Amino acid sequence: MKRSHPNGFTLIEVLISVFVFAVALLGLAALQITARKTAFESAQRSLAAAIAQDVLERMRLNTQALAHYAATLDANTTFSDSLDCTTPANLAACDRRDFQRSLLGATETTGTGANTSKVGGLANPTLCVTSSNAGGSGQYTVTIVWRGREPFLPEAGSENASDTCGNGQYGAHNEYRRIFRLSTYICREGISGGCV
């Protein structure tokens, strides 16, 4: 007598298929989480780059007040809303106020009235402008730091490890500090032309 073999799947085959499918879904979920974290870090870095470029461009347009730009700026720096932006020094103060608002995302909000909240900007930002010759022609460096979501220690001896902008504000070993730095030479023209 011939034995008939059942057609179809056995319970073990079905369980193995479900297990493989579940592992694939978990891998896909982990990939999605990593992609979101990377996209956030990329968006923060792009915003920092745009603000740093804006800082340098405004400095190039207001070379008479270069010394007023060389400073540290963070969320606790206060500015008056009624600044007179006509003189070079006051224009520099107005520019610094605008930099702070860009860093904090003051112009990007959601909601209305008491439910308004900022949705743009960097997380806990600090902006540092340094120069080899503050107030005169020279190399100017704009450094923007902010708090990242995941800890990451920079390599020992790297510029990121030795940079002092925002030092100590982003974890015990600056493991949450993210840095964007942009440098350029700015010429402050003298009365008779040339750089001074």
From TrEMBL:
The keyword Transmembrane applies. The keyword 4Fe-4S does not apply. Keywords: Membrane, Transmembrane, Transmembrane helix. Residues 30-95 form the Type IV pilin Tt1218-like domain. The chain crosses the membrane at residues 12-35. This is Type IV pilus modification protein PilV. It comes from Methylococcus capsulatus. The gene is pilV.
